[in-house]
């Protein structure tokens, strides 16, 4: 006897085809409602969809029942920026344009730890969705930890270059002359691992949403880069593929934190070379109306 | 006759249950392989998964067949930062800490357009995945366009506040005293709409991957914020929910561009108030090893 005959006695099962058909139509309609937006997950993270999901997944109730995760602070007058640069935007641009990613560091001299602290304090001034401040900066200078981090990253990067990255990707990276060997992870005096807190906790231990956490933490990284440059310190923004979980375990990060970027920080080695790329011109990045 | 009897003559269909079972097991195994990582799409964009997809979806072949999207430039010596701040990281931190998000702008005075250009040039110095520079900055000062943008945003924000945002989200925003009325969109002398190019095109018109484009463009936004502050100009980072497509159409952006943030830029209005939040302390954002 076929499985069909066996299950044929149930009304539900004997009409399986109609049910399947209705389900398919429902799924199709759902896709249409989402405006064929399936492709966007392939090409980039869509915040709108992401946030819609957040909204829809949240339990609803009377608004008054919900406490804000933020304190209800007073609003005070603000008269605009008072601490600026004497040379304004031009001076800032010259400084930003002087920054270059460095892939070869010397172990000495070591930038003062106070400098690193100031740079992280500056990064912590970034705006964030509903003022959630969803960032953690792990500063590693311990030799043993740097070696363990290098071991984790090189092990994964060897597989990345051999299997996980497409041929096109490897070709795109060729002018950068990178490979899976990452000596900067043990040479640089500091490694800053920036974690995004994908959610947080209220004082009462309730889970709290961190809206747009990836954008917020990336903005903080932009400020961190500028602060390091202001102090004359070089860095490199890396996103080591498939290393997040192992690095979280090594650094005993809580479950709500995910690695965003890993940055070696210090001074370039004496024989440091950088690719002589031109930046895009203003007319290629601006649109005026 | 039931649909079951009708389709029962096919071997394939009469064994539908076994086939369904095998499919389910296959899907389950796929989920196990992905290490139960379904949840991460709810909590945040996972770059590793995203990039793995990119790698796997790319057509493979002999590496030598692939041209790099970047030119094969020479590598030149780099001796580190030469343009810094006299007060180093401390001066930078004080400047960053002086920046506050502003929600009430005055239409005059208008910051010089050159200032905006310098700030965008500085933002364009951000690092990006494989030096793809995946950003476009649309600067809007035209009154009519500002009104049209406000119309689009307020229409959607009214629905966002009424339906799309969860009660918890609205409660979390309560201390910010925001609602769907966005006068800053017509009051501020400039609106800067920052678009991420989720992919690009090579000179020959071939599609080219923009690795980690959202992180890269968000880092550029961080630099833009600092540059504006250096020039004494205030701003607000907003992520208007569900407005991306309409704003892309209005500004005739190409299909590879998605709105990341919309920033009103100018000077605070005379009666501007800001919430008196404290920033997290250093000890709460740093972890040292």
UniProtKB/TrEMBL annotation, chains A, B:
Entry GO MF terms: iodotyrosine deiodinase activity; ribonucleotide binding
Q: Which residues form the Nitroreductase domain?
A: 98-267
Q: Which InterPro entries match?
A: Nitroreductase, Nitroreductase-like, Nitroreductase/BluB
**Cofactor(s) demanded:** FMN
Write out the GO cellular component annotations: plasma membrane
Task: Provide the alphabetized UniProt keywords.
Answer: Flavoprotein, FMN, Membrane, Oxidoreductase, Transmembrane, Transmembrane helix
Q: Name one GO biological process term.
A: tyrosine metabolic process
Listed transmembrane segments: 12-33, 211-231
Record family assignment:
Belongs to the nitroreductase family.
- Indicate what this protein is called per its UniProt record: Nitroreductase domain-containing protein
> Which species expresses this protein natively?
Glossina palpalis gambiensis
From which lineage does this chain's organism come?
Answer: Eukaryota, Metazoa, Ecdysozoa, Arthropoda, Hexapoda
């Amino acid at each position: 006897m076929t499985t069909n005959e066996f299950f044929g006695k149930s009304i539900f099962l004997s009409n399986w085809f109609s049910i399947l058909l209705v389900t398919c139509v429902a799924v199709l309609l759902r896709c249409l409602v989402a405006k064929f937006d399936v492709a966007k997950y392939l090409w980039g993270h869509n915040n709108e969809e992401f946030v819609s999901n957040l909204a829809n997944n949240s339990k609803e109730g009377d608004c008054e029942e919900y406490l804000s995760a933020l304190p209800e602070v007073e609003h005070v007058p603000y008269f605009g920026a008072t601490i600026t640069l004497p040379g304004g935007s031009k001076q800032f641009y010259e400084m930003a344009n002087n920054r270059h990613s460095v892939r070869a560091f010397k172990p000495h001299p070591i930038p003062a730890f106070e400098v690193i602290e100031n740079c992280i304090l500056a990064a912590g001034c970034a705006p964030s969705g509903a003022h959630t401040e969803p960032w953690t900066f792990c500063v590693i200078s311990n030799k043993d930890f740097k070696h363990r981090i290098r071991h984790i990253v090189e092990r994964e990067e060897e597989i990345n270059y051999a299997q996980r990255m497409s041929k096109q990707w490897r070709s795109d990276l060729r002018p950068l002359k990178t490979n899976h060997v990452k000596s900067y992870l043990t040479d640089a005096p500091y490694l800053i691992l920036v974690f995004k807190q994908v959610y947080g906790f209220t004082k009462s231990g309730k889970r709290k949403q961190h809206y747009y956490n990836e954008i917020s933490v990336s903005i903080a990284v932009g400020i961190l880069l500028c602060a390091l440059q202001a102090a004359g310190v070089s860095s490199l923004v890396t996103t080591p593929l498939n290393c997040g979980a192992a690095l979280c375990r090594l650094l005993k990060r809580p479950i709500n934190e995910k690695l965003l970027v890993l940055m070696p920080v210090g001074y370039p080695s004496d024989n440091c070379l950088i690719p002589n790329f031109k930046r895009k011109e203003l007319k290629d990045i601006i649109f005026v109306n």
